[in-house]
Amino acid sequence: MKKQITKKQNPITIFVLAATTVLFGFSTAVQADISQVRAVTASAQGQPKALYFQHGGKWMEIGLLADGSVRTFTETNRDEWSIFLADGEVTLQLDLHTKTVNYADSSQTIPNLYQVFAYHN
Predict the structure, then answer these.
(1) How many CA atoms within 13 Å lie on the side-chain side of 113?
(2) How far is Cα 88 from Cα 4, in angstroms, rounded to an integer?
(3) Residue 26 — φ and ψ, nearest 5°?
(4) pLDDT tens profile 14-47
(5) Cα gap 83→12, rounded to integer Å
(6) Which residues pair with 40 in a beta bridge?
């Protein structure tokens, strides 16, 4: 029996539930037009690590598994292959060509922080 979604449910919760299904392998994205990409799931060493998704004009990062942290980013640019995000302390590059998430802050740069598992419109 399917549960009906009511208008009272938080749209972020609904999106996270749907994206978690994707993250655990029930669905994967085919090549998408980068201008339409609104969600990216990332992993490290085969373990799900983060979910990035656009909501209300901002990008949210939800840490998966142990910490469950939430961080908000502003999209600063897109090019043919990447989405660039910043929050004043950290910058991220969601590179859909190399399928990596690259990290930088004022003290360090970490290329290939995570691997892109899937991306979606």
Answers:
(1) 18
(2) 39
(3) -80, -20
(4) 444 444 444 444 334 455 689 999 999 999 998 9
(5) 20
(6) 52, 119
- Whether 119 has a pLDDT exceeding 70, the answer reads yes
pLDDT score for 118: 94
Token digits of residue 9 = 């449910």
In degrees, to the nearest 5, what angle opens at C-alpha 27 toward C-alphas 120 and 49? 70
The two three-digit tokens of residue 53, written as one number: 């998704």
Which residues partner with 79 through β-bridges?
none
DSSP state of 34: G
Contact 59, 78 (CB under 8 A): no
Number of helices followed by number of strands (H, E) in the chain: 1, 8
Per the CB < 8 A criterion, the answer to whether 119 and 32 are in contact is: yes
Tokens representing residue 38 in the block: 């609104």
- Quick check: 72 and 87 in contact, CB under 8 A? yes
Task: Tell me the two tokens of residue 19.
Answer: 């994206």
CA 51 vs. chain centroid, Å, equals 4
Name the pLDDT band for 78 (thresholds 50, 70, 90): very high
